[in-house]
């Protein structure tokens, strides 16, 4: 999640929920997905400082072969239309995601 | 979303995402669901003061025939295991949800 857009906690929550739903609807639905559901669909919400760091993160995740969904806000409230606010990485195994995200801090 | 549990914005975002994913996976998948997806899967994040108000809200939503998913936290961080933190109402038509939620404020 970008922290430079001045979004309130409700707006942030909605963006993260968009990302999670997109990850579930558009990501792979094999054994990794089923294992993630069985584990209680764990999510870790991390922060990036801005658009450049978000883009860099997405690039690393794609290069690692991970499912990535970038969320662009419709712009009805708080941020300009089309702004990339956050991304979802996964569903995937922690051992595959952690090398990409370990540098980031919890939101 | 309950506001009485002292959860940070990242924790809140994860709970809302749990609720949204549960609503998508467990809710009805008919024309209303497809229309919601086509509209950009809109979400409105609202607040309740505590467990009693959350339970009352869920009761009203169930009585109105709406899909309701209550999220109970696994309790690994910040709140006690099994705590009901929030619920998802829908996917449903705004005309059906709004009478149940209109009394609540944005988070």
From TrEMBL, chains A, B:
It is an enzyme of class 3 (hydrolase). Keywords: Hydrolase. Coiled coil: none annotated. The keyword rRNA processing does not apply. Its EC number is 3.1.1.29. It catalyses: an N-acyl-L-alpha-aminoacyl-tRNA + H2O = an N-acyl-L-amino acid + a tRNA + H(+). InterPro entries: Pep_tRNA_hydro_II_dom_sf (IPR023476), PTH2 (IPR002833). SUPFAM superfamilies: Peptidyl-tRNA hydrolase II (SSF102462). Pfam families: PTH2 (PF01981). GO terms for molecular function: hydrolase activity. The keyword NADP does not apply. Belongs to the PTH2 family. This is peptidyl-tRNA hydrolase. It comes from Dactylosporangium maewongense. The gene is pth2.
